[in-house]
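To: structure subgroup
Subject: Chain for Friday's discussion

All,

I'm putting the inputs and outputs inline so they're searchable in the archive.
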Amino acid sequence: MLNVDQKREYMERLRDYRYGLWKTPRLRHLFLELTLRCNERCLHCGSSCGDVCSEELTPAQYRRFLDEVKADFGTQDKMLCITGGEPLLRADFEEIMGYAKSLGFRWGMTSNATLINDEKARMLRDCGMGTISVSIDGLRDSHDAFRRTEGGWDKAMAGVESLLRVGGFHHVQVTTVVTHRNIGELDELFRIFDKMDIDSWRVINIEPMGRAKQYPDLLLTPDDYRTLFEFIRNQRIAGEPVCYGCSHYLGMEYEREVRDWYFHCTAGTQIASICANGDITACLDIERRPEFIQGNILRDRFRDVWETGFRAFRRDLSEENEQCRVCSERRYCHGDSFHSWDHDRNEPLLCLKGILFDTEAQNPQK
């Protein structure tokens, strides 16, 4: 366990690195939202996926785009992140991702796994999928209610078992969104996943965005947040492969304790996304606002947009809010994650100061 001085020294270096990325971004992760269609109706969905009739790119359009990305950026240090909706609802999924493999792209996927059986798992392996994160949001009743899908838990767990049985993947992960309703199930979920041969369990909090805004009773209380991060930290101290996600600055007590890295929102500096209709944006979790759409791959070459656009994301959010400007932790937080920033009020939707950490206590000289 690192002490506060060691963490702060590293965060200072990361701060300088972040400033450098605002000037000279480096694409590392490219998200492809293959569809907004989904066979589940999750209460927290930031994209409000479901029975969505929206324009989708064709395999030919994806082939042309991937050819351009390879020509302009190469494939050596790039990762395609496949998402939706539920990507496997596309009948041409194998055609699209098989072509990505033929070009040399590494890729992983997020899925609800309800459509995965042994045959689909072999298809995913043969198409080159290296990693997958499967959503299991609580025990059976909690999961099915949260995802509004009867039998969803059993289908998802069967899908994970198929992935493990077929094998050949670099990393099979389960992701759990923790809410006020299911936080009491963490210990039992750990016992279940510990008996499986998954590679990691990612435990994240529900965000006050998307559909979740309609269900305030799902949001975590301050006590819930402290319970969540203590649970993750204790599991990691015990050597278990449990981690938190990339979101949110956690303060010096929890930074580097609950994940393998320090907080750093890379939306628009290392991450870009292609929406189902071809629109170019940063992180797909960010609110879909016209000013955040940087172009469209049907009319723009992605390289040109990456090099000349994305200015909305290459900036310090904390400069736009008085409370953030006077907070000494802004050096490392920068206003927190872009996806959890209220872009109308210019303030964070979620700030963990006063919940996980106290600025004055960490900076007694203030």
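Points worth raising on Friday:
The CA atoms of residues 25 and 269 lie 5 Å apart.
Residues 361-366 have pLDDT under 50 and may be disordered.

D.
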